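Example 4.3 (complexes with small molecules)
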Amino acid sequence: MKILTVIGARPQIIKASAISRAIKKYYNQQINEVIVHTGQHYDANMSSVFFDELEIPHPNYNLNVGSGMHGEQTAKMIQGIEAIILSESPNYLLVYGDTNSTLAGAIAASKLHIPVVHIEAGLRSYNKLMPEEINRILTDHCSTYLFPPTASGLNNLLKEGFNDSNTKPYSMDHPLVKNMGDVMLDNTLYFSQLAEQKSDIINTLDLKNQPFVLCTIHRNDNTDNEFKLKEIIQALINIADKYAIKIVLPIHPRTKKMIVNLDQQLLEKFTNNPLIKILEPVSFFDMMMLEKYSNFIITDSGGVQKEAFFFQKPSVILRKETEWVEIVDAQMAFLTDANCQEIIDAATLILEGKIKNNVVEIFGDGNAAKNILNLLLQ
Ligand code: UD1
Ligand code: UDP
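Answer. The structure with uridine-5'-diphosphate bound is encoded below.
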């Protein structure tokens, strides 16, 4: 069985390691995985670092598409993936999540009648102003195998008319829809011990036994809107100063590019604050250690929201809605949008110990990748 895996953005490279690992461990004789990197992310610390660290086979193809407008970027990807499908003739094309690389893979394969496997199907923010929402909906509706990672993801698909009792043979018009759990949980469970041994970031940043907040920001709705970015930055300054707590921010290249346009006075207050540590994007092992040892996490990332939950850390989500509704329902996360006061209020609740740790099973049992492959082999 040949699977053509399409990845491109940082979180997809990380997610892909779960499937590649399961192939190597359980199905080496039966499955041949061919990896296509679209080149959507290309800086070493957004891409190659993960292949090295997470032992993902290096891509068989790199389309080197790079950054650009949505249409331009997606079109180049479709063109490149189409040619590879024609020469490789895979049995399946596998995509993750909701980026432009996901959509490009799904369009190229579905039009050539290659069954699309969508890992992280069914997630919805119900906000079509997000490019990711468009990518997810379109990908789901031309996939043959839809694997939502959560019960709400499955439910969203049922509401859109998908049927989870379809039986073989599957097709785009008669797809398999099944909650398989989350491959990101597989990764956190598998790598967190190893990260303890390999990562030195807690010592390097002098964070041992020190309270600190981990923060990531990259959602275009936050970075490309000056008002919202200002609100977030002001909230971070206020939290650091009010609680004398360190804030560690591995900065996404999109945010790094936009932050310099901020009001000069605010920018200086932020970058010169001794409690605020801005880093280049970190490796996955370093990120896991920062998540594990932080007091709580402020983020607009989908993946980081989940990892916060895996490490039982409360999070403040810099969005007005989330696809990971179960975490909010479990009261382990607060939706604050980019509202300075709401971010501070949520941080206050957490720092003053006013929330309890609610441990519930949302994302499966850590065997999602193996179970997905097993299903495809059947
Ligand atoms: C993309 C995904 C988003 C995902 C995020 C993960 C889409 C529409 N968005 O957003 O869903 O959450 O990846 O990180 O697919 N850049 C660099 N170096 C890089 C990559 C990007 O400098 O290696 C800069 C470029 O200026 C680029 C900008 O970041 O224009 C945005 O990159 P892009 O891939 O378009 O979107 P992300 O914001 O990364
Ligand atoms: N991540 C990382 N280094 C960083 C920031 C994030 O390894 O400096 C990892 C993080 O642990 C998670 C994934 O990248 O596994 C999330 O990616 P991102 O936030 O870019 O995208 P999203 O999940 O929002 O699509």
